[in-house]
Amino acid sequence: MDLQHQALRSGFRQARQTPRSRHRDIAQALGVSEGELVAVHCGVFDPLESPLKARRLRGEWPQIVAALEALGEVMALTRNESCVHEKLGVYRNTSVNGPPGHRIGLVLAGAIDLRVFYERWAHGFAVEERLADGAEQRSLQFFDAQGQAIHKVFLKPASAVAAYFDLVEQFGDGKLEANIECTEGPAPKAERADADVDVAGFHAAWTSMHDTHEFFGILKKFGLTRTQALRLAPPDYAHEVSTASAHEVLNRAAQDGTSIMVFVGNPGMIQIHSGPVKRVEVMGPWVNVLDPGFNLHLREDHIAQAWLVKKPTSDGLVHSVELFDAQGETIAMFFGERKPGQAERCDWRNLLTSLGSESGAEVQAC
To answer: In this predicted model, what pLDDT tens digit does every residue of 236-288 receive, in sequence order?
Structure first.
């Protein structure tokens, strides 16, 4: 086993010599999960084998997240297979609710805005890596039971390094094993036959919503996947639009100065940007937002479906653009920036008007 671990560390070292190589891609090339690749860097080994060193953390996830405030300004990163969301800020106003096994956390710090599903968190590590330029990169990285990354926290120049070391000492696990046991993920949920769906009841529930957060409960009640729900939506509440819509939305928001919300997540985390976007650039298949404090990297070629969706709330209709991959998994969602109690922004609706007209959808005027 140690020879296998050594081979993985050496493979990582060699791969990181290639500019812009990423941990996730290296792990895939080496035939392991990203969590397993990080785990083999625990314990004692020759530093020449790899520039990375990891220390296992105890599974006290809500306490660790609450302790992040002491680090000051850091970069929060959440991703899925098709989109990476990076925000600069301070972790504040953390909370957790629900019984063990169903704990849901919040981080409501303005720039750092998170919805945390702790039941999916399985492994955590403090990670240090010598970069090609000799700089030391420090981070906290969290993975699910399949070894897939849920969330990462990277120290930045303004971060409190001493507080990072204090946190690692407080929550560090004494176990030095250079491996984690990965399990198979849950099987994808099969869609019910449309004929088995109570479509009339589903429509009534959709059109009676008072808050967009009710939508998940409606999906569960009627046994629907998200894309099936959009396909079976009440008339004029969901229209499929071009897969280029995400790029169009970002470009128009940048041109018009429209403040938007960008939701990106995975089963263990949703991370949200609220505010304007300014610099939008395309690099190969990636559509990127490259702003101070917010970066987004979206694989446009992974978008199999894009929908313009309307949901009623107590503050009026709310419109979103929702992106899905070929398996029906959510890639990202875009809304106009708003708070509960506020009507939807007129500039967001204006931005969506031409998008809707291309698909035959009507965007409600202000």
So the answer is: 999 999 999 999 999 999 999 999 999 999 999 999 999 999 999 999 999 99
Token pair in block for residue 248: 């169009």
Q: Is the dihedral of CA 230, 270, 30, 17 positive or negative?
A: positive
Which tokens belong to 333? 């969602």
Q: What is the pTM of this model?
A: 0.95
Q: Do 245 and 251 form a contact (C-beta atoms < 8 A)?
A: no
| DSSP 8-state secondary structure symbol assigned to residue 48 | G
Residues 260 and 246: their CA atoms lie apart, in Å, by 12
CB atoms inside a 10 Å sphere around CB 254: 17
H-helix segments, 139-242? 161-171, 199-207, 214-222, 226-231
The SS3 of residue 157 is: coil
Cα gap 176→174, rounded to integer Å: 6
Edge to edge, the sheet with strand 238-241 lists: 94-97, 104-108, 113-117, 269-275, 260-266, 330-336, 316-324, 305-313, 238-241
Report the 10 Å Cβ neighbour count for 176: 10
Angle between helices 214-222 and 199-207 (to 10 degrees): 170
Residue 297: in which H helix or E strand, if any? Answer: strand 294-299
- The beta strand positions in 61-170, using DSSP E, are 74-79, 83-89, 94-97, 104-108, 113-117, 123-130, 136-143, 149-155
The dihedral sign for the CA sequence 203, 268, 338, 99: positive
